């Protein structure tokens, strides 16, 4: 463990103990009657999760899980940030993007995929209302009217299937119910921010209820283009989304219908040229958050439209429930990016070029069908079996100013059979076992190439005839876990899980006169032990886990470098180990503190694997090189895998007549993170941090809340990613924002 890790962990533990000491002293001095009166108010609420596709207390599930809901969730997304705002808000979870609000990338316990293409495969699965969102555009669905977020760490290959070698982020929206309820929330703030969100629901008949949820988010353009002498021409967005749900609750069948839509128009990630200096990862004098110098047309615009629908049916049988979930998701759109970061004059160097890439997603269609049968009895044995079918197809049209436009087509079909069973051995011990068989097929073909490309006109490019590709694989995944109740308030768990990510095809390089690439399937074996406890009369919840995993044939994306490519490769092995813990402590009835810490050590193990490092010797490569000047990456950490994540939050409220005033603050610290497969002095970050603050008044009599908030209140400039083929281009986190909001609820 590094000195940094030890010091951060010590700070976290000491902070918790100090809070406990400060908070307990007035309680000990209080009258006995006051202690009895306040004890119930101090108890933490029971958290229910569906990580195993059935409702359970989070303390009873033998998996490392963290949740977000209520005020914690609202605070994170108060300024209208996209789904990547979850980055470093949960120990072990990281997120980033080089595609604006459109295509996020997620990492759990250090495992993810840095591929920026619209056809990228990821080992973190996103589940929205029990439907998998496989394509990166579907993963960027805006979050609104959310009931709870579950971050389920480690491979989940039994119940959720392929492409879950890292874990799952599961989102559940608020469902319809018979009781009438509604809310309206409006937000206004800096950078021209104006957001409006609301929902209304209730019973239509004795058996039928409905809920409609709507979202509108706006940020004005705020970034100047010094090359064209234009002010406030980039950085803004408009996001519109809606969801309509109907819930039928009959004597023998329940039916939940969900239809949702999204319309987004905004700005791609802002690439900033030479904001790093050779030999340093610090942002230099070329960096100005409010200004870029783009010489390319298009102003980094992007827009996407999506809609989807699902139908969940629950049939109550004798001692069993039969569930069917049928879903369809569709999307299209695209964006343009000035990926070299601007005009050479901005940095005062002699680099020549205008690297602009436009990508269009064509006719994405995803269809899924799940059927499962689950026991519904109070006996010691519980079980569920089922089947799953997945079918997806889409096209990607990559347009380059030099090579022209090239279209490729991707297809994927997969089916699986699964089963899982838990047995209560006695009052203290539960054991769970599961298995899943998956069959997966991917296809790839090339359409038109180099259309209207200048390279073809001058004879630099030649049309290559690439044969269609079809790859298939099957796999048996399994898991075995146990949960032992050491006391009524503390349980120990152990879990061994096997996971599978299907083979992948990347055809982006066809647009640049290079062949497509294929990565073999990867498999993971994961081991973890942990403890979950509710202590101090249910006022302190402390959960933690130790883990170790080995990935065979880990899939990697060799991106950029002097070759300017995007090729899939496999390393022999990837190894990761570490720990994470989460805590919530109700110090007083009106004071809560919480947070967590994670440590991840990851390592690539392949003594022959090489990648092309940065172009033209512009960066300081720390890895050894072979005769072809390629970097040997054996022993390197996984890319975009934070070694440590620290999260802290606190809430204090002041009761007043008819309501309360509360203060909520949160802080996150990200440890050392390498950006690429190779290591360099420039392309890494350390000690990135952000802080948020909210002060609000809640009126209980009239069910409204008004508050002021700030996100990234210190205006920290954090390097989130980079582009390395011709200069030291980087992109950074969201700017500081302040705002006011008002929410009123109706019952």
From TrEMBL:
It is a multi-pass membrane protein. Residues 1-30 form the signal peptide. Residues 260-712 form the TonB-dependent receptor-like beta-barrel domain. It holds the Pfam family TonB_dep_Rec_b-barrel. A motif (TonB box) lies at residues 46-52. Belongs to the TonB-dependent receptor family. This is TonB-dependent receptor. The lineage of its organism: Bacteria, Pseudomonadati, Pseudomonadota, Gammaproteobacteria, Chromatiales.
């Amino acid at each position: 463990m590094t000195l940094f890790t030890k010091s951060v962990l010590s700070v976290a533990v000491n902070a918790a103990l100090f809070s406990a000491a400060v908070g307990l002293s007035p309680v000990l001095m209080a009258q006995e009657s006051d202690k009895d009166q306040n004890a119930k108010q101090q108890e933490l609420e029971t958290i229910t999760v569906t990580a195993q596709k059935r409702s359970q207390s989070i303390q009873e599930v033998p998996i490392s899980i963290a949740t977000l809901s209520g005020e914690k969730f609202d605070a994170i997304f108060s300024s209208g940030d996209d789904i990547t705002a979850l980055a470093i808000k949960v120990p072990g979870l990281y997120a980033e993007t080089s595609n604006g609000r459109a295509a996020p990338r997620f990492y759990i316990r250090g495992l993810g995929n840095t591929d920026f293409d619209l056809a990228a495969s990821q080992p973190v699965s996103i589940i929205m209302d029990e439907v998998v969102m496989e394509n990166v555009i579907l993963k960027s669905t805006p979050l609104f009217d959310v009931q709870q977020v579950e971050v389920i760490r480690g491979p989940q290959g039994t119940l959720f299937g392929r492409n879950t070698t890292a874990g799952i982020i599961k989102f559940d929206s608020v469902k319809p119910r018979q009781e009438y309820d509604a809310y309206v929330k409006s937000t206004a703030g800096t950078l021209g921010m104006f957001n409006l969100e609301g929902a209304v629901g209730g019973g239509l008949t004795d058996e039928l209820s409905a809920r409609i949820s709507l979202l509108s988010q706006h940020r004005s353009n705020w970034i100047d283009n010094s090359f064209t002498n234009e002010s406030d021409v980039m950085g803004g967005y408009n996001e519109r989304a809606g969801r309509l749900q109907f819930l039928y609750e009959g004597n023998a069948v329940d039916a939940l219908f969900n239809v949702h839509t999204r319309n987004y128009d905004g700005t791609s990630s802002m690439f900033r040229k030479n904001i790093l200096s050779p030999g340093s990862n610090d942002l230099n004098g070329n960096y100005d958050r409010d200004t870029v110098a783009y010489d390319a047309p298009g102003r980094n615009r992007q827009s996407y439209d999506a809609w989807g629908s699902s139908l969940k049916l629950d049939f109550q049988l004798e001692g069993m429930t039969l569930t069917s979930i049928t879903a369809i998701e569709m999307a299209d759109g695209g964006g343009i990016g000035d990926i070299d970061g601007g005009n050479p004059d901005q940095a005062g160097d002699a680099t020549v070029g205008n690297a602009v890439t436009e990508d269009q997603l064509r006719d994405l269609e995803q269809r899924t069908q799940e059927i499962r049968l689950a026991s519904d009895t109070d006996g010691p044995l519980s079980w569920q079996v089922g089947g799953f079918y997945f079918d997806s197809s889409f096209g990607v049209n990559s347009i380059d100013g030099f090579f022209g436009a090239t279209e490729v087509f991707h297809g994927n079909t997969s089916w699986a059979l699964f089963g899982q069973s838990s047995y209560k051995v006695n009052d203290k011990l539960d054991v769970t076992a599961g298995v899943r068989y998956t069959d997966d097929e991917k296809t790839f073909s090339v359409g038109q190439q180099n259309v209207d490309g200048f390279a073809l006109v001058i004879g630099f490019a030649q049309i290559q005839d690439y044969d269609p590709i079809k790859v298939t694989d099957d796999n048996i995944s399994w898991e075995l876990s146990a949960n032992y109740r050491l006391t009524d308030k503390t349980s120990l768990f152990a879990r061994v899980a096997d996971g599978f990510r299907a083979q992948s095809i990347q055809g982006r390089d066809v647009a640049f006169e290079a062949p497509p690439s294929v990565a073999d399937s990867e498999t993971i074996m994961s081991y973890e032990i942990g403890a979950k406890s509710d202590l101090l009369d249910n006022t302190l919840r402390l959960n933690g886990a130790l883990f170790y995993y080995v990935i065979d044939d880990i899939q990697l994306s060799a991106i950029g470098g002097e070759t300017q490519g995007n090729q899939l490769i496999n390393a022999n092995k990837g190894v990761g180990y570490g720990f994470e813990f989460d805590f919530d402590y109700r110090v007083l009835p009106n004071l809560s503190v919480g947070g967590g810490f994670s440590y991840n050590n990851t390592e690539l193990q392949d003594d022959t694997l090489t990648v092309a490092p940065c172009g033209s010797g512009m960066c300081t490569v720390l890895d050894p090189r072979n005769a072809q000047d390629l970097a040997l990456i054996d022993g390197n950490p996984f890319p975009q895998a934070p070694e440590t994540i620290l999260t802290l939050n606190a809430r204090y409220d002041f009761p007043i007549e008819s309501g309360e005033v509360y203060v909520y603050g949160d802080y996150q610290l990200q440890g050392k993170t390498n950006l690429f497969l190779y290591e360099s002095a420039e392309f890494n970050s350390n000690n990135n941090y952000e802080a948020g603050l909210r002060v609000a008044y809640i009126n209980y009599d009239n069910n409204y809340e008004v508050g002021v908030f700030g996100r990234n209140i210190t205006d920290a400039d954090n390097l989130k990613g980079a582009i390395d083929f011709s200069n030291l281009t980087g992109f950074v986190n969201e700017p500081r924002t302040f705002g006011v909001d008002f929410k009123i609820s109706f019952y």
